[in-house]
Amino acid sequence: MNIRFTPVAAAIGLAVGMLVSSAASADTIKIAIVGPFTGPLTQYGDIVSQGVDTAIEQINAKGGVLGKKLEAVRLDDGCEPKQGPVVANRIVNDKIHYVVGPVCSGATIAAASIYNDNSVLMISPSATSPAVTDGKNYDMIFRTIGRDDQQGPAAGNFIAKTIKPKRVAVLHDKQSYGQGIATAVKNTLDKDGVKVVLFEGINAGDSDYSAVITKLKADNVDFVYYGGYHPEMGLLLRQGAEQGLKARFMGPEGVGNSDINAIAGAAVEGMILTLPADYSKNPANAAIVKAFTDKKRDPTGPFQLTAYSATEAIADGIKGVGADNPTKVAAYLHSHSVDTPIGKISWNKQGDLTNFKFDVFMWHKNGPKTLYK
């Protein structure tokens, strides 16, 4: 997931504010959760927090790590690139050694060098932009999710081989995440011989997309791929239905948010999207799923179990080296695999997973998403 620019004054004002889950103590190992805890993308920060909190509770119930309990520290970057470095410097100054996040790629890209240069181990469960890691030579930067150059082709090939539309439009929100994945989808469709009649950006935060919907109708578009987040996708769906647009819509994991139902209404039914596989369906994760549901948390969302896995990887790395030493833990993760709810995972030299699967789902107005069949 990447950034959309939302000039929210509250997010800036609170960017360096900390909401600590328990009192600071020398007997704890702190893990910072960095993401949007204010602004329109707040739910994604909450999703990641659910995963980290559940993992910490499970690990602490078994005695913690090296005789110490893990402690979550929440830091709000609002998904804003300008706030990413502010939060990163706060973490360095507070001598926190481990980070799960940032949530959005724009903030992650802006902050990653600070974490790396100050020996803070960072694992993002949701930042999908290739630019997070490509060409950086980072030692301390990891993620527990795939990249957009995996997700985009998966979506494009699905459209070409399964949907087989006649006239496709590819829209995006003009931001690095949305435009990047939209471009990857378009390039895949071009290779597959699918005609893309419109490739265009819209302005994130607008309330009226009538002009682009008029273009879609004039071009007889029967399928729309949108790269971006749920607020704009919800409006495109609703306003398209209101204006009689007969086209199916698809998007990336950034549209997979339950808040879209309130925006799109009945028009959300049948929306197609790519998401990480639903690891909550794996029988091996039954106990973890119960731990989520016992706390009234949702284990089925896009980033809960990737966040859980990031936390588990940190804990296993500390145990593996026998010390709270982030540099040694990073080296350990580069050379070892870790058993997690998303499977046995390992990383390449630049901190990307050696294997990750995006599945295709269908969204429903009155119930959970279902695997597309």
TrEMBL record:
SUPFAM superfamilies: Periplasmic binding protein-like I. Coiled coil: none annotated. Residues 28-364 form the Leucine-binding protein domain. Residues 1-26 form the signal peptide. It comes from the Bacteria. Keywords: Amino-acid transport, Signal, Transport. One of its GO terms (biological process) is amino acid transport. PANTHER family: LEU/ILE/VAL-BINDING ABC TRANSPORTER SUBUNIT (PTHR47151), LEUCINE-SPECIFIC-BINDING PROTEIN (PTHR47151:SF3). NCBIfam families: PRK15404.1 (NF011933). Belongs to the leucine-binding protein family. This is L-leucine-binding protein /L-isoleucine-binding protein /L-valine-binding protein. The lineage of its organism: Bacteria, Pseudomonadati, Pseudomonadota, Betaproteobacteria, Burkholderiales.
